[in-house]
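User: For my dataset I need records formatted as: sequence, then structure tokens, nothing else. Please produce one.
Assistant:
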Amino acid sequence: MWILQRNRDTLLATTLLACAVYGQESNLPPEEPGVFKTQANATIDAPIDVVWNALLDFPSYPDWNPFVRSQVLASDLFIPLDDQSNPVAGQKLIINVQTPPLDPPVDADTPSDPLHAQMSYENITVLEGAPTYRCAWKQIMIVDALLNATRWQALSTLEDGRTYYEAREVYSGSLATTLESTLGEGLQQGFDVQASELKAYVEGA
């Protein structure tokens, strides 16, 4: 638990330092209260629209993402849609997550670890392109009081033209403490590696 708290504190300090260095305010919405949170950021040497397109190109996730191995647009009955190219707010997502994440780099042929694979069913709650560049999806639970978690991701342009990527998820509800003790460290690792591998993917394109 102390290691997880130390990691979160170090990540927060890194985020604040990056914002101070670049004079950049966070583009994420105000943080909601919760039991614990995971967060990450990266400075990406690419225009904001290039990073935004990569972030929303869900079919490419298996090619580079060690944490979210697949993210599929689905109907209200969670049947995968034929068109995976145009996510919009209100659509459903089927997300295959590795917690902890696989060791990078990965590609579409990298096998999953079945012992650490979880399926998550979520709603796209926010999807705002220019000028906001923010998106969010919320885990679907029968009762939010059990577990309430919305993952926010946001982009902003730094003064030097590079893109600042941020991600945050706050977990609340009666199951959040159990989630933190069992998967909290792995979730934070997943956020960290997705940020770093998104940077590597976009910059290497």
